[in-house]
Write a structure and sequence with these properties.
- The chain is an alpha/beta fold.
- The protein folds into 3 domains: 3-109, no CATH class; 117-262, no CATH class; 283-418, 2-Layer Sandwich (Nucleotidyltransferase, domain 5), CATH 3.30.420.
- Helix content is 45%, strand content 11%.
- It has helices spanning 3-12, 48-54, 57-64, 89-96, 103-106, 108-120, 125-135, 142-147, 166-172, 174-180, 186-189, 197-207, 210-231, 245-263, 325-342, 355-362, 369-384, 399-409, and strands at residues 41-42, 45-46, 283-292, 297-305, 311-319, 348-352, 387-392, 415-418.
- The chain has a 6-stranded mixed beta sheet with strand order 7-6-3-4-5-8, with helices on both faces. A two-stranded antiparallel ribbon has the order 1-2.
- A hairpin with a 5-residue loop joins β4 (297-305) and β5 (311-319).
- The relative contact order is 0.08.
- The chain binds zinc ion.
Length: 424
């Protein structure tokens, strides 16, 4: 079965397993593209041996815990591209133009759901980034390194049994299992087998509550760090490690996030409704960031204008990295200042419509990870580049920067435009 057929297959079986938003991964060729749910039922019971032969362990569990459907209704036609099975003109059109024949679009729902989910979990950004990399098999396990043509033995350094894949390293290596046994997640972890990484991710998302997933996500991150440390000989064995501190760390993070929301104020009503030019020989830099659900990317952009409203500099780029909204707004400010620096522009007021990023730059609060790093970089650069001020404006006074950011969010090519008359 080719990858394309495989995707077709799982689309055909889309959504018959309750609550599973993603297509169902399939692991054997015994069932064909026209297979029906009824093929898995014998005498009003799930045919467990057939299910075991054909589905990944976690899907087996999902299927067999469902009540056997009653067959008083005959099979009905179901428009598989709509969540409620209804045919729509738009869906029909997309089908007609071959939209869903592209394997990329077929697997999109699955990836989009996962990506949005990782986006939404309340964990420190570095844990989110770790999980994003994990699900794309981008963490440096022996197998992943080998896949990227880095000469290394694929065998697990810790147990010596089997390849060190992402799932092996984190969940199925018996050294790892010794650590998981100390946690409340052991009952889930012990069910994991060496399936493709993304499938395990989707299963964890499906089977755990969001809070449990967040806890597990942080444990996994801490565990990976410990495994790396152990590999470099700093501690003798991972099994002896204590990872219980991670929940306290996560709790502190969530508390800090909550207090952040409380201090966020509504848009000030005294600020201007529309953009106004700066005074003569001064400049205004308007920056913005926005997230594009289709491309799953941020766009950041900025524009510098003078006292006659003339645009002299504009830039924008797509950011393909999981960031917080604050992180993206800060990055827009940071890139904006770098552009000012590159073009020797001084006497500039920066305008942002993100009150949170203004507060982050001027406030006393400590931020973690990249947010914290960018805040201190911005503070430093504002001094060296002689930025007059960083002010918050209403969205309606920031429409051009917003439009440029929106454009950049769907355009992989960065742009940097400079007016010819401007000294560079
Ligand atoms: Zn191992």
């Amino acid at each position: 079965m080719t990858r394309h057929e495989f995707l077709k297959m799982i689309e055909v079986h889309h959504r018959w397993v309750q609550d599973l938003a993603e297509p169902i991964p399939f692991s054997s060729a015994e069932l064909y593209l026209d297979a029906r749910v009824a093929d898995l039922i014998t005498e009003n019971e799930w045919n467990t041996s057939k299910i075991i032969r054909n589905f990944m362990p976690y899907v087996q569990q999902m299927i067999t815990t469902m009540p056997v459907p009653s067959f008083s209704n005959p099979d009905a036609r179901y428009w598989k591209f709509d969540s409620k099975g209804r045919y729509s003109v738009k869906g029909g059109y997309q089908k007609a133009i071959g939209f869903y024949d592209n394997p990329k679009n077929q697997s999109r729902n699955m990836l989009e759901g996962w990506w949005k989910f990782i986006w939404s979990i309340s964990v420190p950004p570095k844990v989110r980034i770790f999980w994003w990399r994990l699900s794309k098999d981008l963490i440096p396990t022996a197998s992943n390194l080998k896949m990227h043509h880095i000469p290394t033995a694929e065998t697990c350094h810790y147990c010596g049994f089997g390849k060190e894949s992402t799932i092996h390293a984190l969940f199925t290596c018996h050294q790892s299992r010794e650590v998981w046994k100390q946690t409340t997640y052991w009952s889930w972890i012990k069910k994991i087998t060496n399936a493709p990484t993304l499938e395990i991710c989707l299963w964890l998302k499906w089977t755990l509550t969001k809070t449990d997933f967040e806890n597990l996500a942080v444990y996994t991150w801490a565990f990976w760090k410990a495994r790396q440390t152990a590999y470099h000989g700093k501690i003798s064995a991972i099994s002896g490690m204590d990872i219980h501190w991670v929940l306290g760390w996560l709790k502190d993070y969530k508390k800090a996030q909550r207090s952040l929301h409380v201090t966020t104020q509504p848009e000030p009503q005294n600020s201007a409704l529309y953009w106004t030019p700066p005074i003569e020989n001064h400049w205004k830099l308007n920056v913005d960031a926005c997230f594009n659900l289709n491309s799953q990317s941020f766009g950041i952009a900025g524009i510098v204008r003078g006292s006659n409203g003339e645009a002299i500099l504009a830039f924008g780029r797509q950011i393909n990295q999981p960031l917080s909204v604050l992180g993206a707004e800060l990055l827009a400010i940071k890139y904006g200042i770098l552009e000012l620096k590159e073009h020797n522009l001084t006497s500039v007021t920066i305008e942002t419509d993100s009150l949170l990023s203004k507060q982050a730059v001027f406030g006393e609060e400590d931020y973690l990870d990249y947010e914290g790093i960018w805040i201190s970089e911005i503070k430093e650069m504002m001094k060296s580049v002689a930025v007059d001020n960083l002010v918050h404006v209403r969205r309606s006074a920031n429409v051009i920067a917003n439009a440029l950011a929106s454009f950049s969010s769907s355009s992989p090519t960065p742009f940097s435009w400079v007016n010819g008359e401007f000294p560079t």
